[in-house]
Every structure is written in structure tokens, then in C-alpha cells.
């Protein structure tokens, strides 16, 4: 059965990238978002949702305009529905041995270009957060004083609501099966229920399903992984007083209840068998790491019942953890946006990049940073230090 309606853009997936892209494109386009599940089922809806410029914090790389866009976008959403941005500084601790490393040098140099991001030595951090951080063995840390966290469901709802006000249509429970082209142009998408929906452009923001949706056009340099996350019992006073802190391969921060969100990452071997529980080996790892960052956690950790965050379909990552945002397969206006570290935070920037590909609008950053061909697509095998082998 074919539908008569046609759209300027079909966005596949209503995670944070899909919703933000719809919000950005709906100003000037008829946008249809097709989502196979519901708004609260994606990886985005289940994230811890600490908000900062994770691309900068990976390697200290400065991509112009990114941090500013994140802050402007999240604060701009505060006028919609029940959305609230909770201020919570983020600290990336620097080990003594890393004090003069090229990465630390680069982070310190670039911090000067980004308002609100500053390097503090351990003594300064101790006076900023008395009796909170355990700074033994750390030289200091890079602090984003304008970081925060959000409740991810309210974030997705706020973006959807704003896109709908501009005329975007969201359809849930509709799974895209194929993207069809004619003469190197997008023609239509077909759904699993047999509908054909005609459109000029397609944005594929389907998380771990992006790769299979575009496999007939290109190889994507992405690998699926799962973040298993849980809550360690904290104290209501932690919310607002304890910063989100990363160091020695982990990232831990409090939520509104003052419980500490902890996590561990595993490669996914089989998309039909993704672990959802918080595994014992993660508990052992956190028991070793948490007291290295925060004071007061030397005893046995108490986990909050039902505090596990589920990541039912996993998420994706490229070898440099910066997304692919590009037209692929030589097809005009077939755009992929996938594979980013921290895409809840970075979705508004990714949306600006997608918008630029489809409308020719200017960006403050170079689009080459996101090109699919920056990787060797013939040899897609890679590892990342913080992601562990799949659990047997
Ligand atoms: C536990 C956890 C903690 C995290 N913490 C943070 C954090 O603190 N900060 C941060 O910035 N990020 C965090 N992340 C990472 C972040 O969640 C991901 O980077 C982000 O959700 C990816 O967004 P996305 O839109 O690409 O994909 P998704 O959120 O996975 O959305 C893709 C959507 O596409 C839909 N879809 C798939 N196939 C089809 C199809 N064929 N047709 C129609 N729809 C389809 C899916 O149902 C899904 O809703 C965390 C993730 C987890 C799991």
C-alpha cells in the first residue's frame, strides 16, 4: 500500500539525534519522524544524561562552536513542557603521571578558548570541593563549570514538542525496512507494514540499526556497545554539591536524589543478546574506582534497588568516538548521523551538521571532521580502551 503524502525529510529514529534533527529542520521543511518503538525506549531515553562537550573531553580537541551550541540549546529548551537543565559541574581529573602529557597540554591550551572550561590544580580543586573529592595521585583537573544533567525523557519530549509546534509529524510504532533510491536520489522509504513514504531527503538516526539500514549503500565505521549503569546509594545533599567526575577510566556523578550513577561499557557481539543487568564484574570495578575519586566510599557499596539503567538495543561508536555525519553511498540527501560519544549532549550539534548537509547552511566547524571516509572502511575492526570485551 502506498501513501499519497510526501515529505521534504524523513528522519528515521526518535532518539536524541532524531528529535533534535527534527527540531532543527522543521523551521523550513515538512518533516516526518518514523520511530519503530516509543519515545521512552531508546538508548537516549535511558541515558544518565550528563551534559557537557564530550568531544573536547575525549582528547582536548577544540571544535569551534560545539560547547556554546550545547549550552545555548539546552537552556533554550527550558521554556518547553516539564524540561529542566540541572547545573552540575563536570571534572576530568588528571593523574600525576599525565600532568605534562600531550593530551593534558592540549586540553589546557584549548580550555582557554572555551568559556567556562578551566584547568585547576589539585589544591584549588580541594578548596572548591572540600571533603568531596579524593585527589590522591591527581595533579588537577579540567572543569566545565557550565555542565549539568537532564532527565532524558523530558529532554526528548521537549524537543519533540518544539518540532511539532513547527509542523513536524512523529509516528511511533512504525519501522522503516528499506530506503529506496532512483537515479542517485532519494525516492521513498518502505515500512515493515508495507507503506511507501515519498520524500526528498532521509536522515538515518536509528542508533544500532543505522548500519543495517544503509548497508546496501556503504560500510559504516561503527561498532555497537552497551553501557551498563546503576545507582550507588548516596545522600540527597550530593545533588548540587558533588560534581560529575571522571578519572582512571570511569565517570561518576549524582542524580537529583543524590545517588551516584556508575557505569561500565562492553562491546556487543550479538544484537539479539544484549546484557541489561549490572554485572558483578562491573560492581567489582566500581568498588575499586569509586573511592579513588570520592571520599567516604571505602566500605561496601550499597546499590539502589531498581536503579539499573537499561540500554535495550545498545549504542554505537566510531574509532575516534566522533560521529559520522555525512551523505553516504553517492546518494544525494541520504544523510547518516551515528556513532558519537555522548550523543544526548551532542545531539544539537549533530543536528546543526545534518541541517548544513541538507540546506547548505554554514557551520562554525569543518564538516570534514565528520566525514565517513576519514576511516579505512575496508578494515573496520577496532578497539577502544574503555570498552571491555563482551561478557561470556
Ligand atoms: C546507561 C547510559 C548512560 C549514558 N550516559 C550519557 C551521558 O551521561 N551523556 C550523554 O551525552 N550520553 C550518554 N549516553 C549515550 C547516549 O545515550 C547515546 O549516545 C545516544 O542515546 C545515541 O542517540 P541516538 O539518537 O543516536 O540513538 P538512540 O537513542 O538509540 O535512538 C535511535 C532510535 O531509532 C529507532 N529505530 C531504530 N531502527 C529503526 C527503524 N528501522 N525504523 C524506525 N525507527 C528505528 C530506535 O527505536 C531508537 O528509538 C548514555 C547511554 C546509556 C545507555
Automatic annotation (TrEMBL):
Source superkingdom: Archaea
One GO cellular component this record assigns the protein to is: cytoplasm
Q: Which InterPro entries match?
A: FAD-dep_OxRdtase, FAD/NAD-bd_sf
Concerning Gene3D superfamilies, the annotation shows: D-Amino Acid Oxidase, subunit A, domain 2, FAD/NAD(P)-binding domain
Q: Where is the FAD dependent oxidoreductase domain?
A: 8-353
Key words, A-Z: Oxidoreductase, Plasmid
Task: Please provide an example of a Pfam family that matches this protein in its UniProt record.
Answer: DAO
Could you confirm whether the keyword Heme appears in this record? no
A GO molecular function for this record? oxidoreductase activity
Output this protein's name. FAD-binding oxidoreductase
User: Which organism does this sequence originate in?
Assistant: Halobaculum magnesiiphilum
Lineage of origin: Archaea, Methanobacteriati, Methanobacteriota, Stenosarchaea group, Halobacteria
